[in-house]
Amino acid sequence: xxxxxxxxLHCPRCHGSLTLTTLDVENGNVVNGVLRCPACSKSYPIxxxxxxxxxxxxxxxxxxxxxxRLATALCPGGEGLEGLPLDQRHTHAGRNWAYQFADAFPVxxxxxxxxxxxxxxxxxxxxxxxxxxxMADKTLAVFCGGTGREAWHLCRTGAQRIxxxxxxxxxxxxxxxxxxxxxxxxxxxxxxxxxxxxxxxCAVAICDxxxxxxxxxxxxxxxxxxxxxxxxxISICVYSFENNWPMTHVVEPAKRVxxxxxxxxxxxxxLVPAGLIWLYQTVLCGSVGLVFPRLSAMLPWNQLFxxxxxxxFGKIWEACFDLLxxxxxxxxxxxxxANLATDTGLRVLSLEMVxxxxxxxxxxxx
Length: 366
Ligand SMILES: C[S@@+](CC[C@H](N)C(=O)[O-])C[C@H]1O[C@@H](n2cnc3c(N)ncnc32)[C@H](O)[C@@H]1O
Prior knowledge:
Blueprint: E1 19-26, E2 29-37, E3 42-47, E4 50-52, H1 56-62, H2 65-74, H3 88-104, H4 109-113, H5 121-128, E5 139-143, H6 149-154, E6 161-166, H7 174-177, E7 185-189, E8 202-208, H8 217-227, E9 228-239, H9 245-258, H10 263-269, H11 271-291, H12 293-298, H13 302-309, H14 313-325, H15 334-343, E10 346-354, E11 358-365
Parallel strand pairs: 4-7, 5-6, 5-8, 6-7, 8-9
Antiparallel strand pairs: 1-2, 2-3, 3-4, 9-11, 10-11
Helix pairs in contact: 3-14, 10-14, 11-13, 11-14
The site of S-adenosylmethionine has 20 residues, from helix 3 and helix 6.
């Protein structure tokens, strides 16, 4: 972040203004420093370009020993956001996603540059339902964007500033992944419900492939809407209830047992569905497609699986692992998605099914 980006942040505890003390600055970007709220005397460290707005308990559960040491050195009182009980589902979420995206299947340039792959630009703009040309000179916020996928593509739209917020430690990989764009980025590590972004600062708020993983998804949606200006856009892409019966009726109930296993074991176990999907996609859909291309497009989940396959077997494996380990996964029917916007007083601009398994909705703050 630039020191001037402090204008869009406030204390998530009391909404007081923050002051910034910088310790290391590189090319005008704050690497390490402290954000302090004089009103409530809380301080929040900035570690390796990432502002840490975790509660005390989240810091304890989620920061690495090195991060804890640095955080304590920068904020000796150890003050985070105190007094909030630790939600075990958040701790699992923070740890599991960080294991997926920083250790098991790290996000790299090769995946992001594969324009027609799952991680590529075409899929991103299809998922978020936004017009690439409309992002120029705007302040954008990506909720739950710790993979850097959204930020990577948004950095290439001429956007003025991109705020990326995530609970997981994988957000710490973004300074290296997005090194050429650090001057545009504000990286924040926090729970989506306790973010420090001031109301009415963003032209667009995006939450892609993530709202279904937030226990209070309606509260998170409201929090997103609050950060946008009047006339601003809120984009979400969530799992659909429709066409997802293997998830809603098999995988989700099975998680009661599966989640007794460590996340590393689930990664290995994910090879089983991944192998079956690979066979289905290459052998069945592939051969039907050669003879009856129109019929193959109608085969169940062909659209989604063929998108995964564009990044090879590794993406299918990763997707299966993702679906197995996610601590919380809600599947929305069409009405529930629309209600998120209307209950928040927003106007729905578009609500479309993507790849027959996700709902993409863009709404406007009126
Ligand atoms: C399936 S991943 C999607 C990541 C990214 N949006 C993408 O599509 O590439 C879900 C993301 O939500 C984040 N997340 C889950 N619960 C969260 C919470 N309560 N607050 C903030 N981020 C959260 C995870 O850490 C993870 O990065």
